Amino acid sequence: VLNMTRQELCAALDAQLAAAQEQVCVLAVPLAGGVPLYERGAGRRAVSASTIKVFILLAALDEVRRGRLALDTPVAVTAEDILPDTGVFAECISAAACSVGTKNTVLERKMLDWDAVSAGRNNYTSAEDLLRVFRALYDETVLTPELCALARSILRRQRDTRMLTRYI
């Protein structure tokens, strides 16, 4: 891989993704700007899976910015706190997503709500929308500079590196 040209690498990635016969969305762009290094289905809406946590992080840190949450205060969640509807969840996370200009992010269910999935409701985003979040955190155009730095630190320290590189 290290001796490949960008064109050879892109061709190899295209071949591998085509062979996987999966719907894959990829967007590799330098955060500091520039042309995409690799793109495949970047604007396509896809089930968000665990990437929804990026939007949850953004929403939680926005609550800190607004003074509604504190970083050093534990939050106890009781059974009574869990609402049967997703209105508050969807509004809060959707507002965070909209704050960075997302176009394909839609929230229709809570995490691990398999009944909603069975009923045809899901959470969706796109590689382009995730790039908008990452770029906003990188450029510090959302939250505060300190909270952007915290978000970047949290994202850099994620422990599961197998999923991202499993096909590379």
Task: Explain what the structure shows.
- The chain is mostly helical and 168 residues long.
- Helices cover 45% and strands 6% of the residues.
- Strands 1-2 form a two-stranded antiparallel ribbon.
- The model has no long low-confidence stretch (mean pLDDT 84).
Features:
168 residues; mainly alpha; two-stranded antiparallel ribbon; two-stranded antiparallel sheet; globular
Give a quick rundown of the structure.
It is built from 7 helices and 4 strands. With 168 residues, the protein is mainly α. It has a two-stranded antiparallel ribbon. Strands 3-4 form a two-stranded antiparallel sheet.
**Helix/sheet category:** mainly alpha
Q: In total, how many beta strands?
A: 4
Residue fraction in strands? 5-15%
- Low-pLDDT regions: none
> Which percent range fits the helix content?
40-55%
The string of secondary-structure elements, in order, is HEEEHHHEHHH
Give the count of helical stretches: 7
Question: What is the averaged pLDDT score?
Answer: 84
Strands in their spatial order, largest beta sheet: 1-2
Strand count, sense and barrel status of the largest sheet are:
2 strands, antiparallel
Radius of gyration: 18 Å
Q: Report, as a whole number of angstroms, the end-to-end distance.
A: 9 Å
Overall geometric form: globular
